[in-house]
Amino acid sequence: RKPAQLRPPTIEFGPIKRADGSCRFSLGCSTVIVAIYGPQSENILSKQLLDRARVDVTARARTGMPGAAQRALEMVVAQHCDQWIDSVQFPRCMVSVVVQEQSADGSGLAVTLNAAWCALLDAGVPMRSTCCTISVGVTEADGLVLDPCLEEETCASALCCISVNCHSGAIVSSTPTQGALSEALYAAAVCYAQGAAKVLEQVIRQALAKHLESSHALANEDWSGLASEEARCGKGSL
Phi, psi (5° rounding) for residue 58? Predict the structure, then answer.
């Protein structure tokens, strides 16, 4: 893999059937699954927001009890979801986001944010824009590296997670996760992220189209089976 290339992305929409929307998102060997519940009524009056929906994020550790890392991740995911969701359409409601890391091999925050955005898309939650998040690192051997793996992160002097509006190319957010980038390196990292976001957007579109096609085929099969059953029972006509 070249430094300016993403690891192979894998996207599965709807792996959790009981959720309103869900997505399993992978870059290389880093995998995160996110489930969305809502928008739904906020039952706790003290937490209700009169002018918009509240985003509640729960991050679960791969093993053991959640710790400080999961609490920090919850805050970052909630901030990004607030930016993405058109929450003014759902006053006094809440959107519950559940994050489960399944495997970790670098770029964990970018994988999590992409999984969350795709899960919101699967749930049909209205959003303001199409956003893809790319992790960029700086290593002594290769300079800028897109989507660094765990080994590359270990030897990186700086890491940054950049969310890009895929329609306009504008930077939605930039979250430094380690060290600091110079002005020149940051400008180059933004260019890398913008290019990678366009590639990732196409992968998401293809995965969503495949998911919708599969869902429609399953629905048609169910209706055909119901019609056959009614005809067999003599209820096919009025």
Answer: -120, 120
Reported residue count of the chain is 238
**Could you tell me the CA-to-CA distances from 58 to 27, 39, 74, 76, 83 in Å, in that order?**
22, 15, 6, 11, 18
Q: Which residues are paired to 92 by β-bridges?
A: none
Cα–Cα distance for residue pair 115/203, rounded to 1 Å? 13
Average pLDDT over residues 164-188: 88
**φ/ψ (deg, to 5) at 51:** -110, -5
Residue 85 burial (C-beta neighbours within 10 Å; 0-12, 13-18, 19+): buried
What DSSP line would sit under 141-194, residue for residue?
TTEEEES--HHHHHTEEEEEEEEEETTT--EEEEEEEES---HHHHHHHHHHHH
Core vs surface per residue 9-21: b (16+ CB within 10 A) or e: bebbbbebeebbb
| Token code pair at residue 184 | 């020149």
Burial category of 96 from C-beta neighbours within 10 Å (exposed 0-12, middle 13-18, buried 19 and up): middle
* pLDDT digit string, tens, across residues 142-164: 789 999 999 988 888 999 999 99
What's the token pair of residue 59?
Answer: 């991050």
pLDDT band of 93, cuts 50, 70, 90: very high
**Who has greater pLDDT, 162 or 215?**
162
Residue 79 has pLDDT above 80, yes or no: yes
Check residue 142 and give its pLDDT: 72
Judge contact between 201 and 166, C-beta under 8 A: yes
Rounded to the nearest 10 degrees, what angle do helices 108-123 and 68-84 cross at?
50
